[in-house]
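Structure (tokenized):
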């Protein structure tokens, strides 16, 4: 199983940028589909973006054109570059690692990192 540690969250003004990182250890990072999810207060956890082992990406409509997910298999790290941030992006952001044999929503999770966007 993969252990995940997120970093890079913080407080930023609307229109600003942040880059989240998720460092993985303990298993073969490269075989995992890596995803970023977020959960705002009182709301369900939602998928923000994911990247497959082959590098294909997918984004939630709410972040398309503003967020970019990438991975560095040599560093066992996945990133989420967040630009043009909006107050509605405020949430705890979680990293997820899902190997091919595990169903959606399962796999390994990090502890989360808080992102707060002020208006």
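Design, position by position:
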């Amino acid at each position: 199983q993969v252990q995940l540690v997120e970093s890079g969250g913080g407080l930023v003004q609307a229109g600003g940028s942040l880059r989240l990182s998720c460092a993985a250890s303990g298993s073969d990072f490269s075989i995992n589909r890596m995803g970023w999810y977020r959960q705002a207060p009182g709301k369900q956890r939602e998928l923000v973006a994911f990247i497959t082992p082959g590098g294909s990406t997918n984004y939630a409509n709410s972040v398309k054109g503003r967020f970019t997910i990438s991975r560095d298999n040599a560093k066992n790290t996945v990133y989420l570059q967040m630009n043009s941030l909006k107050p509605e992006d405020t949430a705890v952001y979680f990293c997820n690692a899902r190997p091919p044999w595990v169903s959606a929503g399962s796999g390994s999770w990090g502890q989360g990192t808080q992102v707060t966007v002020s208006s």
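Reviewer-requested clarification: The CA atoms of residues 69 and 80 lie 5 Å apart. The chain has no helices and eleven strands.
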